[in-house]
What we know:
Two copies of one chain form a homodimer.
Chain A: E1 2-7, H1 15-29, E2 33-38, H2 39-42, H3 64-73, H4 79-90, E3 93-99, H5 107-116, E4 138-144, H6 161-164, H7 166-174, E5 179-180, E6 184-186, H8 194-209
Helix pairs in contact in A: 1-8
Amino acid sequence: MKVFIVHAHPEPQSFNGALTRHAQQVLQAEGHEVQVSDLYAMGWNPVSGRGNFTTVANADVYKQQAEEAHALAHHGFAPDIQAEMDKVSACDALIFQFPLWWFSMPAILKGWVDRVLASGFAYGGGRWHDRGVFRGKRAMLSLTTGGGETYFSAEGLSGDIMMQLYPINYGVLRFCGFDVLPPHISFAAARVSPEQRAGYLESYAQRLRTLATTPPLVYPSLEEFDETFRRRVAG
Amino acid sequence: MKVFIVHAHPEPQSFNGALTRHAQQVLQAEGHEVQVSDLYAMGWNPVSGRGNFTTVANADVYKQQAEEAHALAHHGFAPDIQAEMDKVSACDALIFQFPLWWFSMPAILKGWVDRVLASGFAYGGGRWHDRGVFRGKRAMLSLTTGGGETYFSAEGLSGDIMMQLYPINYGVLRFCGFDVLPPHISFAAARVSPEQRAGYLESYAQRLRTLATTPPLVYPSLEEFDETFRRRVAG
């Protein structure tokens, strides 16, 4: 498999850094090919706008999806975006490695999503969800949290962390057709014992070794919805 | 009231732009003071890291919350962040105006949250939720969507949009103690008729005129949770 890790943490010595280095070793030992985009190290620009393009469809009013359609037809995506698109297209599995900041991705990673997963490239023309562009590819979140596991449980103050991750798992990854695997979560990574952190590295390694076989999360099929995207009434 | 609008859209002629200009007019006509941070126009940097600070607590390893605590004690927040902090502190109501991109905020706005709502300034030391730093202040999302209302309904393909907005409403705003008002949502803003868009401007104006009196969303109290942040068992 070709595995593409998009890594978003400002400090290489962080536990996020350790997880990505460990992932590279484990995956390569299994014979997989690994590509890493270290967004902070790359100086990735997360601000979506005219800088996404070398072409201009309409110089007076900026409409992003129209510019994306134009760029797609005229090879007009900026080189930083095209390079990431090529990595997504080439991979069999995509991993986002990040610390959960404000119940979501760090802005630098959100801006990778905003800019790279352009209309026409990652979705569009009826290609989404189980008819998505990236169907057949797998995706997985690997994240660290500040809070502990009870805090992020269904009975916890945060509410179930799967609810916090829903906009990413379903709204981003499944939207584009990925088979989304359950996330690997290193709870309270900065506060647990060195033994627990070693345990996180080992449980993550196990998840990476089973990347091709882990059953994905189950999401509805487009078949279940009518032309207004409302669930069809049974019978 | 002092109302602070954080505005995140790359195109001033967009409907987001129209909503913010309308909000300024409506609020000023009601006698309120309005402050707008137009993040694209400001060239806001959304990448959280050492650039958040003029001070350095640890030059070897970057730990954001430690740097934030140090900066708080030594007036070490970067000028762009300090200016936004001052606007948040001064306001009675905070509004985020944005297009829903990938079921969340545009990266430039996420990076405002990541950088401005620093530990020690916006939360910390037991100050969160109903004991939060900004308790007594109100907050509201005003957003536009690509998809229509049925798509974002509980029976729609997206699932209830309140679920998609939960990480922002609860994970960001309520976390910091704001009373969070129901969002104003301009569904399918680019595709509806001019009459419908005029209707959105008017319904938004109505929401702004009742900013001080609209009942906030109901969230649990910290009292309901034990010391591990798990919900206490009744009785």
